[in-house]
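agent> call fold_tool(seq_1)
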Amino acid sequence: MTVSEGARGAFRRICAVCGGTEGELLYQQRFAKEGNASFLDGYDVVACDNCGFAFADHIPDQKWFDAYYGAMSKYEDSALSGTESKWEVEKMRAVAKAMIPYVPEHAAQIVDIGCSTGRLLAHFRDAGFEHILGVDPSPACAQIAMQRFGIQVDTGTFSNLDLPEGFADVMILTGVLEHVRDLGQALDKIAFHTKKGGRVFISVPNASRYAEGEDAPFQEFSIEHINFFGPGSLSNLMATRGFVPIAMIEDMLPVNLRTKTPVVHGIFCKPEEESSPPFQIIKDTTTIGGLRNYITQCRSEDERIRNIVAGLVQEKKPLLVWGVGTHTLRLLAESSLVQANIVAFVDGNPRYHGCRVLNLPVLAPKVLPDYPDVAVLISSRAYQEEIASEIRQTLKCTNKIVRFYSLTQE
């Protein structure tokens, strides 16, 4: 049964901030759940009536997300190929610049949870911090971190994190908490492993300012993003374990030339002594308003893209779809793309090769020359021009390219 947006009702997933069980339905996100390239067919974006925290409801247990990130991680691909995006380097440099002034001393033990290939820790090491450790669910990321930067990364998640109590003077979580289903478990681990008087640095997409970013419509409601923080809700969440905010820094970080993401860097302190008075929730109304603006903004662009898809369906010409991530899976569920004459899917992430979507194979880019007369639909905004360049410059293919976004036109 479809529930109208704006309706209020009971949650299946209890609010991680206040334990609230009722709230408002802001948006219903849907994905194609076909074959073995996805484990999630969508969720409801809801906001807690009591505290204003927004999150994805009707989602599976944490174990499903742990398995997904361990098996389908996309973050090691560029490093394994010997390249590293300049945008990722610049993004991590900006994060380090925001955080480093709040580290009390260079002797601090720093732990980066969800560190990917260790780029952020490399910035800390280059700034004179020697005691650094990374944790990431992908074994390949751990291998790359050692090979590229000489940084130790343990393979693991919050579910199996095994460090001594009070081990970290500084705990870093960059682009992590928006992915975590079981936030209560994560917070307990953070509190346990952080030394009294220690710091916790958290960087998450800023849902209160999604509308100011640049990306595909509804891309912030991705398969992987299931918590939608603003500065207020992030502060409220950390307060549930006694952490006191030191600074909340809002920024806009580039993903590439034409894509940027609003973020908030939260710097928190674990008090030397536990405070007896319970924390006070200050309802986060800013994030709810920001999400409503974002949803309204996305609808117009989404309609334009649906019209392009409808034209492809009407043409009935054979089509290769490049990309099997959030962008594609959403269009397969929410537009008429499923009715197009799709021959196969293509994706640069080797983890997807051999998977099937709509019972069609996901192929490696190198096979594109085998389909010289088939048009390629690039189903990505963030990497549209990089993919187009790979088709023309690297693969030397002359296939017709169909773009959704007018960044460059052929």
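agent> call fold_tool(seq_2)
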Amino acid sequence: MAVTVRLSRLGTSKAPYYRIVVADQRKKRDGRFIERLGTYDPRRTPEAIELDTARLEYWLGKGARPSETVQQIAKRHAARQVAPTS
């Protein structure tokens, strides 16, 4: 079974809201998933990212492949965690 970390779209028309999920690659974008790792809201300023990095590392260690978008979101989330808040 090929497992991927990707976005699942929620929200209304023209107001997207995403879940970051671990899912079987063969399932539909908004279909069944294995585990929810976090959320991503691109409409907020700054964009709201909630991500369980420990579980993300676990799944990547098990061979799950992240989508390009999830890779970018994870990098932005990590940069915010390290950046000083002064």
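agent> summarizing second result for user.
DSSP finds two helices and five strands in the chain. Helices lie at 53-61, 68-82.
agent> awaiting next instruction.
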